[in-house]
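Table S2 (text version). Query chain:
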Amino acid sequence: MSGHSKWSTIKRQKGLNDQKRGKTFTKLANAITIAVKQGGGTADPSFNFRLRLAIDEARAANMPKDNIERAIKRASGKDAGDIEEVIYEGFAPGGVSVMVEAATDNSLRTTSEVKSIFNKAGASFGQPGSVSYQFKHIGRIIVKKQNKSFDEIFAIAAEAGAEDIEEVVDEIFVYTPLHELAKVKDALSSGSVEVVEAGLIRAPIMTVDVPDEEKLMKLENFINSLEELDDVQKVYTNLA
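Corresponding structure-token output:
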């Protein structure tokens, strides 16, 4: 998964810069709403791990407590019905597969905006299932090495149920089955390991290398354009 991790690290760093923009709070609030809906309407993070992850991400972005509480309240009320999760799939130039997660109150509008960016980039908009089989939905936890060795972190993660672990610069990426994410995250925290980020991702089963710098730049601009859309939550590719 090293290629995916390298790209994910770049995307995560970009995300931290994006958080300076006010619209990020809207995206985070929508993520909270979706987490409550996917959790069967449960608005208590103690019993809804996806909501707990969404709240943790909002806090990491310095989203005010009042904003978070309003988002949870909205998710529990009738307004939550207006927000739905939509998944888009397609192919970018260079044989790169793309998956886009969006949260929207108007799927027609969002679909039109996403299709427009695909068309401008010379990318192909795919049908449901055309790309998703190339990705697997898993948990990912990013931790700081600090005073712990790779072997120590590996031992804690593996004992708790992690599937894979790798070292990326001064961080360690821990991959887990969906149902083991909470358990592994809690085990790492209990083991005095600093958790930087934890969430659900779509990891590519196989990656594609694009050595041409010009094509790579166009791909990056394409992905950036998708991420700039208000309704888009996350963009995944199989780019190495």
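Notes on Table S2: The first helix runs from residue 2 to 18. The beta strands are 84-92, 96-104, 124-126, 135-144, 164-168, 171-176, 195-204, 232-237.
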